[in-house]
Amino acid sequence: MNLFLLAHGLGDYVCQSDTLVNMKKEGNLRGYAVHFLIILLFDLIAVIPILSWQSMLAALIIAAAHILIDYVRYILFKSDNVYLFLIDQCAHILVILAVSVLLSLPSYSPLYVDYAVIYVYVVFGGALLIRHVLDTIALQSSQYAVRNAGKIVGILERSIILILAAIGEISAIGFVIAAKSIARFKELNDKEFAEYYLIGTMLSVLLALVGGLAAKSLV
């Protein structure tokens, strides 16, 4: 199951570009086809350590179900928000769990796979979750619209905090937050932006801490 979870994270969080997301939002079937091939490719790579006809079938079913869930979501809602994002991700994970159990796939969960799953979900999945949460606040000012820079900073922030939490150096996390805040010092005088910034930072730290503690518990 963890192999398919990792494949899902890589295909849905890391290798799904904004262009592909926009194509899917517009109902472009080519976008869904490309996304299906990406998910299927990662699923097929994932089953190499447990290669069998059951695992190959599981990869195909999971990839097909993934695209079906995405397309049904488009047909029913034609919109995007944090609630739909969470429901969508839970549906994908439940499919992976159900298929793994129903096809009695062998367990393959070395520590490096578990760590990789935690890292991908916290760092890259967390970036998508935080973006959806902040979008619900609908801060309109163009001076806060630099998403790519914020995304990169967030990825680095969660990566560092995840590592610090995993090795038990919780006290050092304050340095990371302080370093991030220095760049926004003047903008924090704007109460609206300060609240927006605080929500994003606290959610990012929370996700990283949960992931770090989960990684620490595996040792």
List the secondary-structure elements in sequence, H or E: HHHHHHHHH
**From the alpha-carbon coordinates, what is the Rg to the nearest angstrom?**
19 Å
Derived structural class: mainly alpha
Q: Could you tell me the mean pLDDT?
A: 86
Number of strands: 0
Basic shape: flat
Helix content: over 70%
Q: Main β-sheet: number of strands, strand sense, barrel status?
A: none
The amount of beta strand, in percent, is under 5%
Protein model, in words:
- The chain is an all-alpha fold and 219 residues long.
- Helices cover 78% and strands 0% of the residues.
- It contains nine helices and no strands.
- Helix 4 runs antiparallel to helix 5, helix 6 packs antiparallel against helix 9 and helix 7 runs parallel beside helix 9.
- About 3% of the residues have low confidence.
Itemize the secondary structure elements and their pairings.
Layout: H1 2-14, H2 18-25, H3 29-46, H4 53-77, H5 82-102, H6 111-137, H7 147-166, H8 173-182, H9 191-218
List keywords for this structure.
219 residues; mainly alpha; 78% helix; flat
Could you give a short description of this structure?
The protein is mainly alpha-helical and 219 residues long. 78% of the residues lie in helices and 0% in strands.
